[in-house]
Amino acid sequence: MKAADLIAVIPELVLLVAACAVLLAEAFRKEREASSLRGRPRRVAVALALAGTLGSVVASLALVPGEARVTFNATFVLDEWGIFFNVLFGVAAALTVLLSPRYLQAHDRHLGEYYALLLFTLIGMDLLAGARDFLVFYVALELMAISSYLLAAFFRYRLRSNESSLKYFLTGAFASAVLLYGISLLYGQTGATDYWTIGRILGSEGAAPAVLLSVFLVGVGLAFKVSAAPFHMWTPDVYQGAPTPITAFFSVGPKAAAFSVIIAAFIFGFGGVAKEWSVFFIVLGIATMLVGNVVALVQTNVKRMLAYSSIAHAGYMLTGLAAVGWSRDVYPAMGVLVYLAAYTFMNLGAFGVLGYLKTEAPSSFDYSLGRLAGLGRRSPWVGLLFSLFLISLTGIPGTAGFIGKFWVFSGVVLADLWWLAVIAVVLSAVAAYFYLRVIIYMFFREPEEQLVLDRPLRGGAAVALAVCAIATVVIGVLPARLWDAVTEVFATFLG
Amino acid sequence: MVEKILFVIFAVLTIIGGLGTVTRRNIVHGLLFLVFTFLNVAAIFFLSQAYFLAVVQILVYAGAIMVLFVFVIMFLNLRTFQQQEQTHRRQRWVALGLAVLVLVEFVAIFAGMTFTSARAGFSPDMVEQSGGFTRVFAWSLFERTLLPLEVASAVLLVAMVGAILLVKKEKGGDVATQAWDPEEAPPANVRDEEV
User: Fold this and answer.
1) Are B165 and A150 a contacting pair at CB < 8 A?
2) Which residues contact A210 (CB under 8 A, 6 or more apart)?
3) Which stretch of DSSP H or E encloses residue B172?
4) Do the Cβ atoms of B171 and A147 come within 8 Å?
5) Residue A36: what pLDDT?
6) Which helix H or strand E contains A343, and what residues bound it?
7) Side-chain-facing half-sphere of B37: CA atoms under 13 Å
8) Distance between CA atoms of A235 and A148, rounded to whole angstroms?
9) Per the CB < 8 Å rule, is A127 touching B151?
10) Domain assignment present for B70
11) Are A54 and A124 in contact (CB under 8 A)?
């Protein structure tokens, strides 16, 4: 290691300092307010977490390099690719922090460790995006995963949170084991753990059965993380039982991080068997879109419905990945990055609105569709915001969701997989039913019992939702800037 | 030849130990099987001339960590797991069938295969020339894989914070955290509602 290597991990170091500061601030807080079940929001922790996440975003942007920083013996690279994801993850985490304090207060759970764990998850995600070595990748994945299990269990006195965390932990550990098995087989065949060397050696071997099996195992392990069908079973239960701001974060952050490593590892490491893993992702993608969209149709719990919808969105992005392998071209991957950016804001926003409603009506709001009836007329702003996010998730032109779908599907078509794009478009038309149904309930149904909200939307949650809404509209109307950024990312990505 | 025979013996013993660990109902017996597994893994390391790793395996895993496990089990007084009603009886047979299928697949693919890492990685001569196993090991750990090593420390910190978060007794948190029989109604203070 050279001292200069540390420059590349400055964003992660900023987060690490912030996380440790949060932990220490918690340890030294006054005894009389030490109860976690009563008291005030942890202002210090919130401020430190915000400072940490935004600091990492600023540090990443300040590090925009002329050339890629290949560090730690080529196991970790900070280039435009890493910076794109650092900024995306940092913003998502900052928005989650803004959504959280009132929610935690409404549920009588005040612990600063919440923010520390969120920061640790973020460190893992940033490292995942920059990893170019399976060891860094695996350890970063575990950092992200273990922090996530704990965040899911944050309401430890609630049955649902316990169920959520345990399911997440067991399936996650199983996925990690499968992934590790794949990595160890790769090491056995190549004697290396970094993507490039593995790619070089496997490239010369072609599609030997042993190579395919190891790539398959790594793919299955990662499919768990992006909740692709048939490895999606945990998703609805985990999303339902986790604190809602954390659910919002799970649905965008760790999922996007898993996509970032899939793209990097499969392009660099498994380029030799691109056609084969492309078929794997086509099958996964079709299954995921089907399961996500069809099961979401029958959900009456809106939180679960959004969980299935996030499964479906992973399916759309998987078709983009399949197109990358099929055409051996990174163009569809650019679409996936645009989709990830768009999806981050609209999905955070949608879950954020649910989190706000739960905050202001903690005992009466149970996420059921009926409970949302009449909301649009009582609280028009909240209704409009939620409608905007749902319309964007549907993929209607003028919103971010359309731009994401447009670039991914056009990449799929250009890769000569037009039939796959047709399936995806048809299924996203099916999705319109369950998204628009929520809007109809909010604006055109008479409620059986009015949902009484304690306070209007304001404070941190208002800022977070406003940012999400603005980003959703801006990406939808003026996508050129985002597309340019993604083009720049891929100009240096392949080196 | 002798090495090969020894390897097979220790590998079989490792598998037996692993099976014993997951099948024993008495948790102390399970732990002893786990120690047995660790010792056999150490023996395999020893056979592959990774002496340092073998010693670390015995000292850290079979020694320190297992002692901790036993302590925790004694503190919590967990002697046996209660016999739980299997909820998905048919799944067990499907799982067994699939497991056999996967095993056959792995054997079919990897039987007779030479792993390149054995050729491309470190040979005993190379290790000899660069100053012995421990030196090569230290170089790999603290130079080549320094970043994952440091990240692992963050993972341990998170695990520690998490353990405290999950089990610490909280002031005002007088809610029952002990288990209850699934067939009875949960204690009144356990809340089953959406979060």
Assistant:
1) yes
2) A185, A189, B109, B110, B113
3) none
4) no
5) 55
6) helix A331-360
7) 16
8) 13
9) yes
10) yes
11) no
For B17-48, the three-class secondary structure string (H helix, E strand, C coil) is: HHHHHHHCCEHHHHHHHHHHHHHHHHHHHHHC
Within an 8 Å CB–CB cutoff, is residue B177 touching chain A? yes
Interface predicted TM-score (ipTM): 0.91
Contact: A209, B109; criterion CB under 8 Å: yes
Q: Note whether B67 and B11 are same-domain residues.
A: yes
Nearest CB to B144 within list A73, A188, A365: A73
Closest C-alpha among A167, A184, A1 to residue A75 = A1
Which CATH number goes with the domain that contains B33? 1.20.120.1200
Cα(B128)–Cα(B136) distance, integer angstroms:
9
CB–CB of A15/A126 below 8 Å? yes
For chain B (195 residues), the mean pLDDT of every run of 10, in chain order, is 90 94 83 90 88 89 83 71 65 89 90 70 74 82 89 94 83 52 60 73
**Least CB-CB distance to B116: which of A107, A160, A190?**
A190
Beta strand spans in A31-75 (E) = 69-71
Note down the domain range covering B158. 120-168
3-class SS at B80?
A: strand
Chain B contact set for A209 (CB, 8 A): 109
Residue type at B145?
A: T
* Domains identified in chain B, total number: 2
Tokens of A246: 């954390």
Percent of chain A topping pLDDT 70: 97
| pLDDT tens digits, A50-78 | 999 999 999 999 987 667 888 888 899 99
In chain A, where the domains are located: 5-493
Cβ neighbours of A201 in B, within 8 Å: 116, 120
**At residue A428, what is the residue type?**
S
CA distance B3 to A331: 52
- Is residue B178 assigned to a domain? no
Cβ-Cβ pairs closer than 8 A, A with B, add up to 138
Residue A100 has what pLDDT?
93
If you search the block for the tokens 């994801």, which residue do you land on? A85
Asked whether residue B88 is domain-assigned, the answer is no
- DSSP letter for each residue of A204-221: HH-S-HHHHHHHHHHHHH
Q: Do A147 and B113 touch (CB under 8 A)?
A: no
Residue B59 lies in a domain: yes
> In angstroms, rounded to a whole number, what is the distance separating the alpha carbons of residues A188 and B80?
39
Residue of A16, A71, A135, A163 for testing the chain B interface, max B β-carbons within 10 Å: A135
Residue-wise pLDDT for A293-344, tens only, equals 999 999 999 999 999 999 999 999 999 999 999 998 899 999 999 999 999 9
Task: Tell me phi and psi for residue A242, to 5 degrees.
Answer: -80, 155
Look at A366 and B162 and tell me if their CB atoms are within 8 Å: no
- At A101-149, the pLDDT tens digits run 999 888 888 788 899 999 999 999 999 999 999 999 999 999 999 999 9
Distance CA B84, CA A438 (A): 41
Run of H or E residues at B142: none
